[in-house]
Structure formats: structure tokens, C-alpha cells
Design a protein that fits this description.
Elements (H helix, E strand, L loop, with lengths): L3 E7 L7 H9 L7 E5 L8 H9 L5 E4 L9 H13 L3 E4 L10 H34 L14 H11 L5 H8 L3 H9 L1
Parallel strand pairs: 1-2, 1-3, 3-4
Helix pairs in contact: 5-6
Length: about 190
């Protein structure tokens, strides 16, 4: 029998999930079928979402309070919902009423969103390329400035390493640099 599986997320431990949980329950999700995360949406690893996706089955519907609670970005959201669709799992958003992939009109709306997101990605790519081309035409090069061997931090890292009195980890902490930067400094 098809089930409603809920997912709720807040970005910090201090934020409250109750508004989302109440809305999901009111929409028909049972408490034991609601998965939650208290973590930033930008994080790739979200244990609640992973458990939710492991439990959900073909014929079920994933229900969220709002679209931004589910996806890290528009690209991630579209990819996730498309993956659900291929597994024959529906998707509904309570506050974004027209987003309901279990209906023909809801699927149409989602596909329009998907096309707009693809259009936005292409525009960003084109603007970035045009900006880089214009900068190169003016003689500018991108990227960081090269670190010179005479830089005090480079000289300090080399001296600290040469003395063998400190571990690489402590040198990096002292100079506030990464291990990769440390080894790059040694090669200068």
C-alpha cells in the first residue's frame, strides 16, 4: 500500500522542527514515517535524508514542507526528484502546492522548474566564460598570485622543517597553513 514518507530539516540545532513536523502530520504522514535532519542544507551527508531514501519504496510519496528543505541547490533538488521519479516514487511539497509529481499538472510544473534551472546553469556558464575571456583580452590572468621563495612564511616553514624540532602538523598549525601549502613551500 502506498505510503506518505516525510522529510523535515532545519539548518542549526537551535532551530525548531515543530512547524514542519506538524504540517507533515496534518498532511497525512505518521510520526514514525517522518525523517529529520538538523544540519545545513549545503552538507552532502544528511543522515535523516539517507535513511528516508533507504526506506521509501515504489508507489510511496516523499512529502516535504518546502522545496528548500530537501535540496542543497536547484541542481541537487532536480536530480533527487528525477531519481525518485525513475524509481516510481512520487514527490509533494506542502507549501509549494503546484509541486506534486503524482499528478500530470504537478509533473509539468516540476519539468518547467527543471528547464528553468538548466537555463540558469547555462546562463551562468556563458557569463563566466565571457567574463574570463574579457579579462584575458585585457591581459589579466586568473588565479592566486604565486608565492615567492622569499615570502617570510615560506622561509619560516623551511627553517622550522630543517631544524627537525617540530612535527609537520605543528608547523602547519603554527603558520596556519595546510599540509599541501607546507609541501608547496618546501618545493620553492
Amino acid at each position: 500500500m502506498p505510503r506518505l514518507i516525510g522529510y523535515a530539516r532545519v539548518s542549526t540545532q537551535e532551530q525548531d522542527l515543530n512547524l514542519q513536523l506538524d504540517a507533515l502530520e496534518k498532511a497525512g504522514c505518521s510520526k514514525d514515517k517522518i525523517f529529520v535532519d538538523k544540519i545545513s542544507g549545503s552538507k552532502a551527508e544528511r543522515p535523516g535524508l539517507e535513511k528516508c531514501l533507504a526506506v521509501i519504496q515504489p508507489g510511496d510519496t516523499l512529502l516535504v514542507w518546502r522545496l528548500d528543505r530537501l535540496g542543497r541547490s536547484m541542481v541537487h533538488l532536480i536530480s533527487l526528484i528525477e531519481d525518485l521519479r525513475t524509481k516510481q516514487i512520487g514527490f509533494k511539497s506542502i507549501c509549494d502546492g503546484a509541486i506534486d509529481t503524482t499528478t500530470a499538472s504537478g509533473e509539468l510544473i516540476f519539468n518547467i522548474f527543471s528547464s528553468l534551472a538548466q537555463f540558469e546553469r547555462r546562463l551562468i556558464q556563458e557569463r563566466t566564460k565571457a567574463g574570463l575571456d574579457a579579462a584575458r583580452a585585457r591581459g589579466r590572468q586568473g588565479g592566486r598570485k604565486k608565492v615567492e621563495a622569499t615570502n617570510p612564511k615560506v622561509m619560516m616553514a623551511k627553517n622550522m622543517h630543517k631544524d627537525h624540532g617540530m612535527s609537520i602538523e605543528n608547523i602547519c598549525k603554527t603558520l596556519k597553513i595546510s599540509r599541501a601549502s607546507f609541501y608547496r613551500y618546501l618545493s620553492l
